[in-house]
């Protein structure tokens, strides 16, 4: 069954995937409003509402109604400065955003997690992503879509040396471990937003690539 999201809340609109997703949303004729809080201003658009500031400070000010929410938030331990700060963004801030989206009426929440997310993982990054997924499941969303992309490919505003070195190899690895372009992921997220089904759906990277073609 398919639906047509009209009132959308988007976090991470200035990020690698979020930029592509925002462009897609603003060019969809069925979308009436995109509420996209961000630290720096976005290009003006008649269907865009862009409050500016720190997301955690902006959350109480956001207004609905919202039917669909996308979360493209994410950082690295290097960018954040510590494991604690990383968890503050990739777990705590995402949950705070999800709670606000739910309060504004969102029925469907789509979030970018990561390949290998596992709350019991010995790898800190994967463990945090797994704990986030578990926390989102516990919220009891009518519809929750968890995207688990592999290495994201595309031009970032900031340099991530590890990703730059891994990108050529990531294009060659088969199956769900192969790298995925951010524009492809954004397209897949929109496709998934159009599908209406109850409960939780986890979408691995190989399926995301197919959906995003």
Architecture overview:
This protein has 213 residues and is α/β, with parallel strands linked by helices. The chain has a single domain, classed as Rossmann fold (3-Layer(aba) Sandwich), CATH 3.40.50.720. The protein contains 8 helices and 9 strands. It has helices spanning 16-26, 55-58, 77-80, 83-103, 124-138, 161-170, 182-193, 205-211, and strands at 7-11, 33-35, 48-49, 68-71, 108-112, 143-148, 152-153, 180-181, 199-204. It has a 7-stranded parallel β-sheet, with helices on both faces. Strands 7-8 form a two-stranded parallel sheet. Helix 1 crosses helix 7, helix 4 packs parallel to helix 5 and helix 7 crosses helix 8 (205-211). The longest helix has 21 residues, at 83-103. The radius of gyration is 16 Å and the shape is globular. The model is unreliable at 159-167 (pLDDT under 50).
